[in-house]
Amino acid sequence: MKRSARLSLLSLTIFLLTLSACSTESPSTSRQSTSSRGSWSRKAPLPIEINENTVAAVNNKIYVIGGSTADRIDHVSNYEYDIATDRWRTRAPLPSGMTHAAATGLNGRIYVVGAFTQTGHGGAVNLVYEYDPVKDAWRSMAPMKSPRGSVGITVLNGRIYAVGGRGVDKVTVTTHEIFDPSTNRWTELAPLPRARDHLAVVAANGRIHAIGGRLDASAQNVDEHNIYDPATNAWTSAPPLPTPRSGGVGVLYRDLIVVLGGEADKDTYNENEAYDLKTGKWLTLNPMPTGLHGFGAAAIGDRLYIAAGAKGRGGRDVTDELLVFGLP
After folding, report:
1. Region 43-326: CATH code
2. Tell me: the pLDDT tens digits for 246-255?
3. What CA–CA distances, in Å, run from 29 to 21, 24, 33, 111?
4. DSSP state of 314
5. Between the CA of residue 178 and those of 40, 155, 162, what are the distances in Å?
6. 197, 206, 203: which is closest to 232 by C-alpha?
7. Quick count: other Cβ atoms within 10 Å of Cβ 262?
8. How far is CA 206 from the centre of its chain?
9. Residues 6 or more apart from 25 whose CB is under 8 A from it?
């Protein structure tokens, strides 16, 4: 065989080997893996740019309640989003303005628990309000036993659990109370193992998960993951949050407890990590489009809805975005 023919054959072989390698190269695999970790989209923005708001969902509608803006720390706003029409409308305002409140849906109603009323986590209150979306009306309920804001709440077996938070002296607490709407009464339960606020509290499989949060300043974020068992009135430790953070949210989504966003002393987080209830392990999902804290979230159907918040720490770069996350 001539030298030129051998060179041509060698070149062809190298080309075919390269083509074969490219067909199984990582970019394709990477794209597939990214898709399997979920995707993000945007829906109609809120009527207002706001942060430190709270969010709850009932009857396939999302409610964004209270919060802070550059000109007001204690908004009374109440905005309703209809996922079927992708539209917002203004509803009856809160009886009193608040920031860093907590909200949850239960039996077709929304309950707003605790809050701050002053800057710098000041003016903690023990107020509890119930909102009836059908009547578009609020009423006061029995207050918590002590004032606190940035408390984590969740619903289990028809009752509301309020965990942690920060009191009138701006000191974080281990307080853990349960509210029964049928009796309009609060009862104290076993305290958190360590005081913290700005934490994620999520009910799943008959247990309460308290995840992350901060001990005091945003530089003191923790990765703690504690599980409360109502049958024994006791807390146990669980696999820690991979990225210690506070000021984000936790939501039960499918068989996952998804923890999104948060704040540190220098920046915000776009982390999207999920605790798999089946395996007891943490997963890394597709990060949020931007770092975000001081927002609210709710799961409806096969989607997670992320409303408002601040892209910068300390309430800077407040947004009106409604982000939507979904797994395939």
Report:
1. 2.120.10.80
2. 999 999 999 9
3. 13, 8, 6, 45
4. G
5. 35, 9, 6
6. 206
7. 31
8. 20
9. none
